Amino acid sequence: MTDNTQTPEAEAERLFEMLRRKEGTWVQWGQACQQLQKMGESSLAIFENTGFEPIQQNQIMVGAQVYTGLVSGDAPAALLAHFERKGSDILYELRILSLVDRIAVAELALAKELDCIEVKDIAKAVKDISTMANLPEGFTRHPGDAVAFQVWKALQAKQDSQEKARLIARGLKFANSNAARVAIERSLTDMIAPTTARSPRLPVFRYDEEHLLPRVLPVAGELPLEIADYKAIPMADELPPFGMVKSAKESTWVAIPGWQAIVDIQDGVVILADTNTLKQVSGQELVSNVPSQPEQVLVICDRAQRQWDDSSYFVVEQDKQVKIQWFDAAPEIKLLGRVVLVLRQMKIFDTAAAQETWQIDE
Protein backbone atom coordinates (compact mmCIF):
# COMPACT_ATOMS: atom_id res chain seq x y z
CA MET A 1 0.00 0.00 0.00
CA THR A 2 1.34 3.41 -0.98
CA ASP A 3 1.25 6.22 1.61
CA ASN A 4 0.09 9.39 -0.19
CA THR A 5 0.27 11.63 2.90
CA GLN A 6 2.82 14.45 2.71
CA THR A 7 4.94 15.87 5.47
CA PRO A 8 4.20 19.49 6.48
CA GLU A 9 7.49 20.53 4.90
CA ALA A 10 6.58 18.88 1.60
CA GLU A 11 3.08 20.40 1.64
CA ALA A 12 4.52 23.86 2.34
CA GLU A 13 6.96 23.46 -0.55
CA ARG A 14 4.10 22.37 -2.83
CA LEU A 15 2.14 25.50 -1.92
CA PHE A 16 5.21 27.70 -2.36
CA GLU A 17 5.79 26.20 -5.79
CA MET A 18 2.15 26.77 -6.79
CA LEU A 19 2.42 30.42 -5.78
CA ARG A 20 5.77 30.90 -7.50
CA ARG A 21 4.37 29.50 -10.75
CA LYS A 22 0.97 31.21 -10.18
CA GLU A 23 -0.81 27.97 -10.93
CA GLY A 24 -4.59 27.89 -10.54
CA THR A 25 -6.83 30.86 -9.74
CA TRP A 26 -6.26 33.82 -7.44
CA VAL A 27 -8.81 32.24 -5.08
CA GLN A 28 -6.54 29.20 -4.77
CA TRP A 29 -3.57 31.51 -4.19
CA GLY A 30 -5.38 33.21 -1.33
CA GLN A 31 -6.29 29.86 0.18
CA ALA A 32 -2.67 28.72 -0.21
CA CYS A 33 -1.35 31.83 1.59
CA GLN A 34 -3.82 31.28 4.40
CA GLN A 35 -2.84 27.62 4.69
CA LEU A 36 0.85 28.52 4.80
CA GLN A 37 0.24 31.03 7.57
CA LYS A 38 -1.65 28.40 9.55
CA MET A 39 1.39 26.16 9.11
CA GLY A 40 3.50 28.82 10.80
CA GLU A 41 4.93 30.63 7.79
CA SER A 42 5.11 34.41 8.19
CA SER A 43 3.95 36.82 5.51
CA LEU A 44 7.60 37.83 5.05
CA ALA A 45 8.65 34.22 4.48
CA ILE A 46 5.86 33.77 1.94
CA PHE A 47 7.01 36.94 0.17
CA GLU A 48 10.63 35.76 0.04
CA ASN A 49 9.60 32.37 -1.36
CA THR A 50 6.91 33.47 -3.80
CA GLY A 51 7.15 37.18 -4.57
CA PHE A 52 3.66 37.85 -3.18
CA GLU A 53 3.98 41.00 -1.07
CA PRO A 54 2.32 40.99 2.38
CA ILE A 55 -0.32 43.52 1.32
CA GLN A 56 -1.16 41.37 -1.71
CA GLN A 57 -1.32 38.25 0.45
CA ASN A 58 -3.83 39.93 2.75
CA GLN A 59 -5.94 41.07 -0.19
CA ILE A 60 -6.21 37.67 -1.84
CA MET A 61 -6.74 35.85 1.47
CA VAL A 62 -9.62 38.12 2.47
CA GLY A 63 -10.95 38.13 -1.09
CA ALA A 64 -10.87 34.32 -1.16
CA GLN A 65 -12.86 34.19 2.07
CA VAL A 66 -15.45 36.54 0.58
CA TYR A 67 -15.57 34.42 -2.59
CA THR A 68 -16.12 31.25 -0.54
CA GLY A 69 -19.01 33.03 1.15
CA LEU A 70 -20.52 33.89 -2.23
CA VAL A 71 -20.34 30.22 -3.19
CA SER A 72 -22.04 29.11 0.03
CA GLY A 73 -24.63 31.87 -0.44
CA ASP A 74 -25.71 30.48 -3.81
CA ALA A 75 -24.56 33.51 -5.78
CA PRO A 76 -25.32 33.35 -9.53
CA ALA A 77 -22.99 31.09 -11.51
CA ALA A 78 -22.00 33.89 -13.89
CA LEU A 79 -20.98 36.05 -10.93
CA LEU A 80 -18.87 33.27 -9.42
CA ALA A 81 -17.24 32.49 -12.75
CA HIS A 82 -16.28 36.13 -13.28
CA PHE A 83 -14.79 36.70 -9.83
CA GLU A 84 -12.98 33.38 -9.83
CA ARG A 85 -10.93 34.69 -12.76
CA LYS A 86 -10.30 38.21 -11.41
CA GLY A 87 -11.50 40.77 -8.92
CA SER A 88 -9.75 40.01 -5.63
CA ASP A 89 -9.41 43.77 -5.02
CA ILE A 90 -13.17 44.22 -5.47
CA LEU A 91 -14.16 41.31 -3.23
CA TYR A 92 -11.71 42.56 -0.60
CA GLU A 93 -13.77 45.77 -0.26
CA LEU A 94 -16.92 43.72 0.40
CA ARG A 95 -15.52 42.27 3.64
CA ILE A 96 -17.46 44.81 5.78
CA LEU A 97 -20.85 43.70 4.43
CA SER A 98 -23.28 40.91 5.20
CA LEU A 99 -23.47 37.97 2.79
CA VAL A 100 -26.67 39.25 1.18
CA ASP A 101 -25.17 42.71 0.65
CA ARG A 102 -21.91 41.21 -0.65
CA ILE A 103 -23.80 39.39 -3.40
CA ALA A 104 -25.85 42.48 -4.27
CA VAL A 105 -22.81 44.78 -4.49
CA ALA A 106 -20.81 42.18 -6.42
CA GLU A 107 -23.64 41.95 -8.98
CA LEU A 108 -23.73 45.75 -9.27
CA ALA A 109 -19.95 45.87 -9.71
CA LEU A 110 -20.12 43.27 -12.48
CA ALA A 111 -23.08 44.90 -14.24
CA LYS A 112 -21.54 48.39 -14.26
CA GLU A 113 -17.89 47.25 -14.62
CA LEU A 114 -16.82 49.11 -11.48
CA ASP A 115 -13.29 49.31 -10.12
CA CYS A 116 -12.26 48.68 -6.52
CA ILE A 117 -12.29 52.39 -5.61
CA GLU A 118 -15.93 52.75 -6.67
CA VAL A 119 -16.82 49.50 -4.94
CA LYS A 120 -15.19 50.70 -1.72
CA ASP A 121 -17.43 53.80 -1.71
CA ILE A 122 -20.51 51.72 -2.50
CA ALA A 123 -19.72 49.24 0.27
CA LYS A 124 -19.50 52.10 2.77
CA ALA A 125 -22.82 53.52 1.56
CA VAL A 126 -24.49 50.11 1.89
CA LYS A 127 -22.98 49.63 5.36
CA ASP A 128 -24.25 53.03 6.48
CA ILE A 129 -27.77 52.47 5.17
CA SER A 130 -27.94 49.02 6.78
CA THR A 131 -27.77 50.63 10.24
CA MET A 132 -30.75 52.92 9.58
CA ALA A 133 -34.12 51.78 10.91
CA ASN A 134 -36.08 53.94 8.47
CA LEU A 135 -35.21 55.37 5.07
CA PRO A 136 -36.69 58.40 3.31
CA GLU A 137 -39.83 57.49 1.41
CA GLY A 138 -39.12 55.66 -1.83
CA PHE A 139 -35.48 54.73 -1.16
CA THR A 140 -34.71 51.01 -0.93
CA ARG A 141 -31.77 49.08 0.50
CA HIS A 142 -30.54 48.16 -2.97
CA PRO A 143 -26.83 49.11 -3.32
CA GLY A 144 -27.69 51.56 -6.09
CA ASP A 145 -30.23 53.30 -3.87
CA ALA A 146 -27.69 53.32 -1.04
CA VAL A 147 -25.37 55.35 -3.26
CA ALA A 148 -28.26 57.56 -4.36
CA PHE A 149 -29.17 58.21 -0.72
CA GLN A 150 -25.55 59.04 0.08
CA VAL A 151 -25.54 61.49 -2.84
CA TRP A 152 -28.91 62.96 -1.82
CA LYS A 153 -27.61 63.70 1.69
CA ALA A 154 -24.39 65.22 0.35
CA LEU A 155 -26.34 67.49 -1.99
CA GLN A 156 -28.09 69.12 0.97
CA ALA A 157 -24.77 70.49 2.23
CA LYS A 158 -23.05 71.37 -1.05
CA GLN A 159 -23.11 74.87 -2.52
CA ASP A 160 -20.57 74.58 -5.33
CA SER A 161 -22.47 73.99 -8.59
CA GLN A 162 -19.71 71.88 -10.18
CA GLU A 163 -19.54 69.61 -7.15
CA LYS A 164 -23.34 69.29 -7.10
CA ALA A 165 -23.36 68.43 -10.81
CA ARG A 166 -20.79 65.69 -10.21
CA LEU A 167 -22.82 64.27 -7.34
CA ILE A 168 -26.07 64.35 -9.33
CA ALA A 169 -24.44 62.46 -12.21
CA ARG A 170 -23.23 59.83 -9.75
CA GLY A 171 -26.64 59.56 -8.12
CA LEU A 172 -28.43 59.12 -11.44
CA LYS A 173 -25.89 56.51 -12.50
CA PHE A 174 -26.65 54.27 -9.52
CA ALA A 175 -30.25 55.06 -8.47
CA ASN A 176 -32.26 51.84 -8.67
CA SER A 177 -35.79 52.83 -7.62
CA ASN A 178 -37.90 55.45 -9.37
CA ALA A 179 -38.29 57.39 -6.11
CA ALA A 180 -34.52 57.59 -5.63
CA ARG A 181 -34.09 58.79 -9.20
CA VAL A 182 -36.82 61.42 -8.75
CA ALA A 183 -35.16 62.68 -5.57
CA ILE A 184 -31.85 63.15 -7.40
CA GLU A 185 -33.57 64.74 -10.42
CA ARG A 186 -35.31 67.18 -8.09
CA SER A 187 -31.89 68.28 -6.85
CA LEU A 188 -30.91 68.89 -10.47
CA THR A 189 -34.05 70.99 -11.01
CA ASP A 190 -33.35 72.98 -7.84
CA MET A 191 -29.82 73.66 -9.03
CA ILE A 192 -31.00 74.97 -12.41
CA ALA A 193 -33.92 76.99 -11.00
CA PRO A 194 -33.27 80.39 -9.38
CA THR A 195 -32.14 79.93 -5.81
CA THR A 196 -34.48 81.05 -3.07
CA ALA A 197 -33.48 81.82 0.45
CA ARG A 198 -33.94 78.88 2.80
CA SER A 199 -35.20 79.50 6.29
CA PRO A 200 -32.66 78.74 9.01
CA ARG A 201 -33.23 76.07 11.61
CA LEU A 202 -34.73 77.05 14.92
CA PRO A 203 -32.10 77.32 17.69
CA VAL A 204 -33.27 74.24 19.62
CA PHE A 205 -31.52 73.03 22.77
CA ARG A 206 -32.38 70.17 25.13
CA TYR A 207 -31.40 70.01 28.78
CA ASP A 208 -29.18 66.99 29.26
CA GLU A 209 -28.08 67.65 32.84
CA GLU A 210 -30.39 68.36 35.76
CA HIS A 211 -28.15 71.01 37.30
CA LEU A 212 -28.55 73.15 34.18
CA LEU A 213 -32.23 73.69 35.05
CA PRO A 214 -32.32 76.44 37.72
CA ARG A 215 -34.66 76.55 40.69
CA VAL A 216 -36.70 79.76 41.00
CA LEU A 217 -37.24 80.69 44.66
CA PRO A 218 -39.08 83.60 46.33
CA VAL A 219 -37.14 86.31 48.18
CA ALA A 220 -38.61 87.17 51.61
CA GLY A 221 -36.64 90.37 52.00
CA GLU A 222 -33.34 91.71 53.29
CA LEU A 223 -31.79 91.38 56.73
CA PRO A 224 -32.70 92.63 59.23
CA LEU A 225 -36.00 90.89 58.45
CA GLU A 226 -39.19 90.63 60.43
CA ILE A 227 -40.32 87.08 61.05
CA ALA A 228 -43.79 87.96 59.73
CA ASP A 229 -42.33 88.74 56.32
CA TYR A 230 -40.45 85.44 56.36
CA LYS A 231 -43.62 83.52 57.17
CA ALA A 232 -45.80 85.48 54.74
CA ILE A 233 -44.08 84.17 51.63
CA PRO A 234 -46.40 81.55 50.08
CA MET A 235 -45.01 78.19 49.07
CA ALA A 236 -43.87 78.33 45.44
CA ASP A 237 -45.91 76.13 43.12
CA GLU A 238 -43.56 74.98 40.38
CA LEU A 239 -44.99 73.67 37.11
CA PRO A 240 -43.16 70.88 35.26
CA PRO A 241 -41.26 70.30 33.09
CA PHE A 242 -39.41 73.64 33.21
CA GLY A 243 -40.08 74.70 36.79
CA MET A 244 -42.25 77.69 35.87
CA VAL A 245 -43.69 79.56 38.85
CA LYS A 246 -47.01 81.39 39.01
CA SER A 247 -47.22 84.29 41.44
CA ALA A 248 -50.59 85.52 42.72
CA LYS A 249 -49.12 88.82 43.92
CA GLU A 250 -46.13 91.01 43.27
CA SER A 251 -43.05 89.15 44.46
CA THR A 252 -39.31 89.07 44.04
CA TRP A 253 -37.75 85.87 42.75
CA VAL A 254 -34.23 84.63 42.22
CA ALA A 255 -32.90 81.76 40.08
CA ILE A 256 -30.52 79.39 41.86
CA PRO A 257 -28.43 76.75 40.02
CA GLY A 258 -30.07 73.33 40.19
CA TRP A 259 -27.56 71.64 42.48
CA GLN A 260 -28.87 68.59 44.30
CA ALA A 261 -29.20 70.44 47.62
CA ILE A 262 -31.36 73.05 45.88
CA VAL A 263 -33.42 70.44 44.00
CA ASP A 264 -34.24 68.74 47.33
CA ILE A 265 -35.77 71.92 48.83
CA GLN A 266 -39.51 71.53 49.47
CA ASP A 267 -40.55 75.01 50.68
CA GLY A 268 -37.75 77.34 49.71
CA VAL A 269 -37.32 80.94 50.80
CA VAL A 270 -34.37 83.23 50.07
CA ILE A 271 -33.17 85.97 52.41
CA LEU A 272 -30.99 88.74 51.03
CA ALA A 273 -28.08 89.56 53.35
CA ASP A 274 -24.50 90.73 53.38
CA THR A 275 -21.45 89.67 55.33
CA ASN A 276 -22.22 92.23 58.06
CA THR A 277 -25.93 91.54 58.57
CA LEU A 278 -25.35 87.79 58.37
CA LYS A 279 -22.89 88.05 61.25
CA GLN A 280 -25.40 90.06 63.27
CA VAL A 281 -28.14 87.42 63.00
CA SER A 282 -25.98 84.29 63.12
CA GLY A 283 -22.84 85.23 65.03
CA GLN A 284 -20.77 83.72 62.22
CA GLU A 285 -18.24 85.86 60.41
CA LEU A 286 -17.94 85.62 56.64
CA VAL A 287 -15.03 87.58 55.19
CA SER A 288 -16.07 89.89 52.38
CA ASN A 289 -14.43 89.47 49.00
CA VAL A 290 -15.44 92.99 48.02
CA PRO A 291 -12.78 95.56 48.90
CA SER A 292 -13.78 98.02 51.66
CA GLN A 293 -17.44 97.02 51.81
CA PRO A 294 -19.68 94.11 52.79
CA GLU A 295 -20.38 91.41 50.23
CA GLN A 296 -23.96 90.55 49.34
CA VAL A 297 -25.00 86.93 49.88
CA LEU A 298 -28.18 84.88 49.61
CA VAL A 299 -29.32 82.79 52.56
CA ILE A 300 -31.35 79.91 51.13
CA CYS A 301 -33.71 78.22 53.59
CA ASP A 302 -36.14 75.33 53.46
CA ARG A 303 -39.10 76.03 55.73
CA ALA A 304 -40.22 72.40 55.42
CA GLN A 305 -37.08 71.10 57.15
CA ARG A 306 -37.75 71.71 60.85
CA GLN A 307 -36.26 68.57 62.34
CA TRP A 308 -33.23 69.49 64.45
CA ASP A 309 -29.79 68.07 63.73
CA ASP A 310 -26.47 69.21 65.13
CA SER A 311 -24.87 69.83 61.71
CA SER A 312 -27.23 72.56 60.52
CA TYR A 313 -28.22 76.15 61.18
CA PHE A 314 -31.90 76.98 61.62
CA VAL A 315 -34.14 80.02 61.28
CA VAL A 316 -35.75 81.02 64.58
CA GLU A 317 -37.73 83.97 65.88
CA GLN A 318 -36.16 86.42 68.31
CA ASP A 319 -37.88 89.70 69.18
CA LYS A 320 -40.07 89.22 66.08
CA GLN A 321 -36.94 89.22 63.93
CA VAL A 322 -35.31 86.48 61.88
CA LYS A 323 -32.31 84.92 63.61
CA ILE A 324 -30.07 82.11 62.40
CA GLN A 325 -28.73 79.78 65.08
CA TRP A 326 -26.96 76.49 65.63
CA PHE A 327 -27.96 74.27 68.53
CA ASP A 328 -25.85 71.54 70.11
CA ALA A 329 -29.01 69.89 71.41
CA ALA A 330 -32.66 69.87 70.42
CA PRO A 331 -33.95 73.35 71.35
CA GLU A 332 -37.21 74.15 73.08
CA ILE A 333 -37.95 77.07 70.75
CA LYS A 334 -39.70 76.48 67.44
CA LEU A 335 -37.53 75.90 64.38
CA LEU A 336 -38.83 77.76 61.32
CA GLY A 337 -36.65 76.18 58.64
CA ARG A 338 -33.14 74.93 57.94
CA VAL A 339 -30.43 76.98 56.22
CA VAL A 340 -29.61 74.91 53.13
CA LEU A 341 -26.70 77.08 52.02
CA VAL A 342 -25.34 80.61 51.92
CA LEU A 343 -24.68 81.54 48.31
CA ARG A 344 -21.86 83.95 47.61
CA GLN A 345 -21.61 85.94 44.41
CA MET A 346 -19.00 85.22 41.77
CA LYS A 347 -15.62 86.67 42.60
CA ILE A 348 -15.24 90.17 41.23
CA PHE A 349 -12.52 90.37 38.61
CA ASP A 350 -10.77 93.71 38.25
CA THR A 351 -10.59 94.09 34.45
CA ALA A 352 -8.79 97.43 34.73
CA ALA A 353 -6.02 95.90 36.83
CA ALA A 354 -5.69 92.99 34.41
CA GLN A 355 -4.88 95.38 31.57
CA GLU A 356 -1.97 96.99 33.41
CA THR A 357 1.53 95.79 32.59
CA TRP A 358 2.96 93.76 35.44
CA GLN A 359 6.30 94.86 36.86
CA ILE A 360 8.40 91.84 37.69
CA ASP A 361 11.63 92.21 39.63
CA GLU A 362 14.44 90.21 38.14
Automatic annotation (TrEMBL):
All copies of domain Rubisco accumulation factor 1 helix turn helix, residue ranges: 12-71
Residue intervals of the Rubisco accumulation factor 1 C-terminal domain: 202-345
Subcellular location: Cytoplasm
Span of domain Rubisco accumulation factor 1 alpha-helical: 83-188
Keyword entries, A-Z: Carbon dioxide fixation, Chaperone, Cytoplasm, Photosynthesis
Record's keyword annotation contains Iron-sulfur: no
Record GO biological process: carbon fixation; photosynthesis; ribulose bisphosphate carboxylase complex assembly
Region (N-terminal alpha-helix): 9-190
Domain remarks in the Swiss-Prot or TrEMBL record: Has 3 domains, the N-terminal alpha-helical domain, an extended flexible linker and the C-terminal beta-sheet domain. The 2 C-terminal beta-sheet domains are swapped and pack against each other to form the dimer interface.
Assembly and oligomerization: Homodimer. Forms an RbcL(8)-Raf1(8) complex. Forms complexes of many stoichiometries with RbcL with and without RbcS. RbcX and Raf1 can bind simultaneously to RbcL.
Protein name (record): RuBisCO accumulation factor 1
Naturally occurring in which organism (per UniProt): Tumidithrix elongata BACA0141
Classification lineage: Bacteria, Bacillati, Cyanobacteriota, Cyanophyceae, Pseudanabaenales
Designated gene of the protein: raf1
